[in-house]
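Feature request, filed as a ticket because there's no other form

It would be nice if the structure record came with a short human-readable summary line next to the tokens. Right now we just get the raw output. Example of a typical job, pasted below so the devs can see what we mean:
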Amino acid sequence: MSWFYEDFRVESAYNGKISCWRMLGEWQIVAGHIMQSGDYIRDMWKKAVRKIPKHEVKKVLVLGLGAGSCLKPIQKRFKKCRITAIEADPVMVELTRSFKFYGRGREPEILQGDAAQILSQLTQKFDLILWDLFVDGQTARMAHEQGLAQSLAAHLEREGYLIVNYYREPETLQVFDQHLSRQRNWRFHYNGLSLYRHAGRGTVGDPLPPGYRPFRSCTPYLRRECAATNKMMPVGTDECTGSRWRHGPWWFEGYTSDIEPKPDQAGPKRMVIWQPITRTDMPAGWKRSWVQMNPNLTGFVDLHEAEPFWSSWKPHALRHLKHWEKFKPYEIAPINADEFMQAYRGRDVKLHDKFMNLWLIRSKLKKHGELMHFYGARDAQGKIMAGFAALDIPEASQSIHVASFIAQAAKNSSVGVGLVANWFRDCLDKGLRFADFDLFWAWGDPFSWRGFSRFKSQFGVTFIRYPKPLIRHVGRRKA
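Raw output as currently delivered:
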């Protein structure tokens, strides 16, 4: 036995002859001229797991353990994670335990056998799944089976990540693309890897759940928006409704829809701005804007997705909900618009932000009237310590968050989570399916949005990342 160099071979019914050698303390395991474990595999997974946020991974599943070179990079990146590994070859399992490619005292749970069969028996879900299944130097045949991809999606937590090592066979990804949303691809020397998440995690082109329609494309909502002012008018059809407005000497027309608008060639010369929702193609006659003139990232909660509604919340929000339900230092009840705005004026925020939000509330009240609802959290003396304003759109079975605030004295309470829970319950009582938080922070937005966006993202949110809008010019005469 030598730290500088040693080697030996073992026979495996699954992998044939397995060569193991150590050079300068580093073990390499090769089967069928393909490296199963070693410094290359370790470095590949070390780079891959860096793409996953540290705090979001507690449970890891490894499909295709080899002799375990991926274990230390995972354990180093996610300090408190628990790893379950599946490996078909019992000889590889023995080598993993012999070489101890894992941290001291952190031996993973190793399940030996067929991956598809073991997956069908597992009941738990995982925050991170690594796919590294190969047979005779080629991607395992089961990678092309619909059932296995569906099973992986079912075992992936709502906010989880799947990394697929497809080596040099990109066609392997076709079946994964049907069940999950591909976030990105990259190469590590000889290997290609792809990162997947569930749809709705903020990737352009992700499909929307059946029944959901962004409120900016809802015909009754747009007609109410236009009816309250002489500066806008509704245009288009019921399937693709938009609005036309004038800004100084220029006319504009805007649509939010996956249905291509057919603007009237008559009328004033104007720019038409079409914001697709999930479409990423560019039909003839349109040009892609280089500026994101519309919302970049929005998010909503499907209240029918989970029962009870809070079961899809992140742990931090659940802890605050439990604390709120136990102590309830404030009483949440409906209030009128004047009470809400008076309490909102007392906030210690930038004057510009305060003015814009108060203007928005007045504007929505004027356009939508009784569909606006306000809630206040009062202390024992009756003072409003926090408030929440929402706009119901019954035609789209949704309610939109318009504005909210928490007084400085209530910042350390759980009143924010209490207000969100109250809003969700109110939506369910009214028979509304979707609670829409609307805007979330994205690059290019004010940095002051980030804190509130992180808060909103705890409540089982489905995100919509919009592609850059398409534009064209129409019209035959000047206004």
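Something like this underneath would help us a lot:
DSSP finds twelve helices and 26 strands in the chain.
The longest strand covers residues 156-167.
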